[in-house]
Amino acid sequence: MSARVREEFARIHGPAPEGVWAAPGRVNLIGEHTDYNDGFALPMALPQTAVLAVRRRADGLLRLHSAQGDGRITELRVADLAPGAVSGWARYPAGVVWALRERGLPVGGADLHLDSTVPTGAGLSSSAALECVVAVAYEELYGLGLERPELARVAQYAENAFAGVPCGVMDQMASVCCAEGGALHLDSRSLEVRQVPFDLAGHGLRLLVLDTRVKHDLADGAYAALRAGCERAARLLGLPALRDLGEAELPGALGRLPAGLVPLVRHVVTENARVGRAVERLEAGEPKALGPVLTEGHASLRDDYGVSCPEADLAVEAAVAAGALGARMTGGGFGGSVIALVRAGEAARVTGAVADAFGSAGFRAPVALEAVPSAGARRLG
Ligand code: ADP
Ligand code: MG
Predict the structure, then answer these.
(1) Which CATH architecture has domain 199-371?
(2) pLDDT score at 141
(3) Which residue's alpha carbon is nearest to atom 2 within ligand 1?
(4) Could you tell me the CA-to-CA distances from 69 to 66, 220, 290 in Å, in that order?
(5) Residue 216 — pLDDT band, cuts 50, 70, 90?
(6) 246: which of 5, 91, 189, 331 lies 20 to 30 Å off by Cα?
(7) What separation in angstroms does the CA of 53 have from each of 4, 8, 323, 349?
């Protein structure tokens, strides 16, 4: 991949790149819609990555090309970058350069060529992979001295303030901090992370990813409304964030909230607790026991948080009926992908059962991938 991206860069931009970097997409095992509540999550990096070749320019121009784009180079002047000034895919990489400059860091223009294997709009964080690969490349080329969590914050700020998507920090933290063979226990308040072993193969397990091919759009207001609802609930309860409400205090707290906020708060609090349970089970060397936590998390997203969709519900139901140990939608919702934890020998049966159920329901055939806990962002060459 690295050699091909290098060659493509030279064909498109002229001279050879100064380096090639990769940043992965992710699936989140559990802990959905918790990051913007200062809570916990347990993502893992996918083998699919955004790969970027870069060469700095001295003339203040940013020239962006994507192998998945329309073939054209988007040319921007770094000094003119401002929120709302860039549209389309270029707003993610340009946003990172802008966000670094907003921090007062002396970064300038560059030629960039991107080639990503992360499916876009499938809830697997192709946007974070794209931001993070730009962030790590710039960090190294300019010797910025930023730690990984700071790079994740820069990438999140680019997506929030420049691209206009009000996402939390989990996707970016997963892309820069995950390690091969494990999941990442993330505290979204402190940005402290812990690597949790997740040896699927060693336990005869596989983690399937079923892309429902329903496109979500986190920028479409639903996500922002949920986020605002959580923030309002925390204010009404006199808490800095919903993270500060424990499961034991939940019944009392729910009685003090307007009815419309009750299911939101119940999801966030029980979801944070599910992350804790999932981590305990993985650290005890019992990844099979993750199954019920996944399925319970899906019910909470479907019934309390209201972010699932008929395709994701059907995929979960069909997977579990076909013998999956557990399944849930992953990512922000309103479409995207479902993960299913299966015994290795049952993967084909579960995938087939979900495809059959989609066929009977008249849904487009899902696309199946496999999630293998992979490395976070890194230099390739
Ligand atoms: P997700 O992050 O779940 O894949 P998003 O809607 O947040 O979905 O991000 C998808 C967007 O990211 C695409 O519409 C595109 O603008 C941008 N993007 C991701 N990967 C690429 C790529 N390889 N080339 C160009 N744009 C990309
Ligand atoms: Mg995204």
Answers:
(1) 2-Layer Sandwich (3.30)
(2) 98
(3) 125
(4) 5, 23, 38
(5) low
(6) 331
(7) 10, 9, 43, 40
In the reported structure, the alpha carbon of residue 127 is separated from the centroid of ligand 2 by a whole-number distance in angstroms of: 4
Q: By the 8 A CB rule, do 12 and 73 touch?
A: yes
The CATH code of domain 2-196+375-379 reads 3.30.230.10
With b for 16 or more beta-carbon neighbours within 10 A and e for fewer, the 344-374 pattern comes to eebbeebbebbbebbeeeebeebebbebbbb
User: For the residues 11-24, what does the mean pLDDT come to?
Assistant: 98
Determine whether 171 is an active site residue.
yes
Residue 305: which of 39, 34, 122 has the closest Cα? Answer: 34
pLDDT beyond 60 at 218: no
Q: Is 116 in the pocket of ligand 1 (CB under 6 A)?
A: yes
Alpha carbon of 345 to ligand 1 centroid (Å): 33
Atom of ligand 1 nearest to the CA of 118: 20
Q: How far apart are CA 205 and CA 344, in angstroms?
A: 5
Instruction: Please provide the size of the chain in residues.
Output: 381
Tell me the mean pLDDT in the region 173-195: 98
pLDDT number for residue 50: 98
Q: Sorting pLDDT into bands at 50, 70 and 90, what band is 104?
A: very high
Ligand nearest to the CA of 163: 1
**CB of 130 closer than 6 A to ligand 1?**
yes
Give the domain ranges of the chain.
2-196+375-379, 199-371
AA letter at 281: R
Over residues 335-339, the mean pLDDT reads 96
Angle of CA points 77, 79, 82, to nearest 5°: 90
What mean pLDDT do residues 208-229 have? 86
Active-site residue (options: 35, 38, 115, 171): 171
The answer, yes or no, to whether any atom of ligand 1 lies below 6 A from the CB of 89, is yes
